[in-house]
Design goal:
alpha+beta; YaeB-like fold; globular
Length: about 100
């Protein structure tokens, strides 16, 4: 199954404001979610089950960026919720466990 990757316009504009190398790397990694958005053998994706039953996924992109996203199997889509530096992600979201 191929998933559609959805990104809100304001987030897409923020990604477009990244420097050229970061923009290219982030876009490439996000597009890979079309083929498989779920964690596997590689450690760059992780699933978090939050207290309210909300399931959130985290994708490390290189050594600098983190994306948070949700997977909607019934709709065949992945919605990117946020992309930020790893440091920003730790400050904003802390540790989910």
């Amino acid at each position: 199954m191929t998933f559609t990757v959805l990104i809100e316009e304001d987030l897409a504009q923020r990604i477009n404001s990244f420097d050229e190398k970061s923009r290219r790397i982030v876009r490439a990694k996000l597009s890979e979610l079309r083929d498989n958005p779920y964690p596997g053998k590689r450690g760059d994706k992780e699933k978090f089950c939050l207290r309210d039953g909300f399931i959130l996924y985290r994708l490390h992109i290189g050594r600098s960026w983190t994306a948070f996203y949700r997977v909607y199997d019934d709709d065949g889509c992945v919605k990117i919720l946020d992309v930020m530096t790893i440091e920003q992600a730790h400050k904003k979201y802390g540790h989910f466990r």
